[in-house]
Amino acid sequence: MRNLKKTYDGWALVTGASSGIGKEMARELAAQKFDLILVARNQDALDQLSHELVLQHDIQTRVIALDLVQEGAAAALHAQVEDLDVGLLIASAGIDEMGPFLEKDYTDLRRMIRLNVDAPSELAHLFGTAMAAEQTPGRKRAGIILVSSLFAYQGTPNFAVYAATKAYVLTLGEALTVEMSKQGIDVLTLSPGLTATPFADGLKMNAALLPMVAQNPRRVARVGLRNLGRKMSVVSGMLNKAYAWENRLIPRSWPVYLFGFLIENAMRSYQKRIDKTPAKKASA
């Protein structure tokens, strides 16, 4: 694994650190002796991770239990760590709202937009501004990783707004790679496909019917960290790369219709399995 300490310094802040890719990012950075700011909603999960990383790697941590959906949360987070020199920002927190667009409660969609779009944008602005101000001659570079998705590369039926939010993150990250590089800040956008996380486990579809292989979150995290400062964006996994690139070779509508069909089929299979499962008898 590439030693990021040679290029970056200061504390690393990881959102979505309580599980999945964010948790594995934190573990990889701790192994490289970065002090960590761990951010997520689940206080207990953060405390357990903090204890693990401090014990194993003799680093410092700061745990911040915070829901980034809430109004003013990003600014509140920034204020809580102003006393620290944050040299890396990993914006990994995100949620999805699966299902037909018109059947979704727009309150839930708005919540997803706030977490997937507003939060990483504001965090990149707040911490990017601070990182740029700290760049002086002889100082190491700073870095930002924004976590997007394979679905960012096309419209995805039954994940319509989720895919749109991740397309925003991808486009934002690509632009910031160019803008911020001049100020000593490397920006990478990481786009995972299906990954074995609690996030994926909660999807109400039979993922076995999709032409995808669930990746290990540690492997995805390593792909992101390895390519920071080397690429503008990266898709983890060879099959996922093929899906992302196919839009450049065939009409954009084809993969939209294809994934729409496949996801509908996987959803129907899941529902049939649920319908066949006998209801548990109430205890006497």
Automatic annotation (TrEMBL):
Please identify the protein, giving its name as recorded.
Pyridoxal 4-dehydrogenase
EC number assigned by the record: 1.1.1.107
Query: What's an example of a GO molecular-function annotation for this chain?
Result: pyridoxal 4-dehydrogenase activity
Alphabetized InterPro entries for the sequence? NAD(P)-bd_dom_sf, SDR_fam, VLCFA-Steroid_DH
Family in the record = Belongs to the short-chain dehydrogenases/reductases (SDR) family.
Q: Which UniProt keywords apply?
A: Oxidoreductase
Q: Name one Pfam family in it.
A: adh_short
SUPFAM superfamilies reported for this sequence:
NAD(P)-binding Rossmann-fold domains
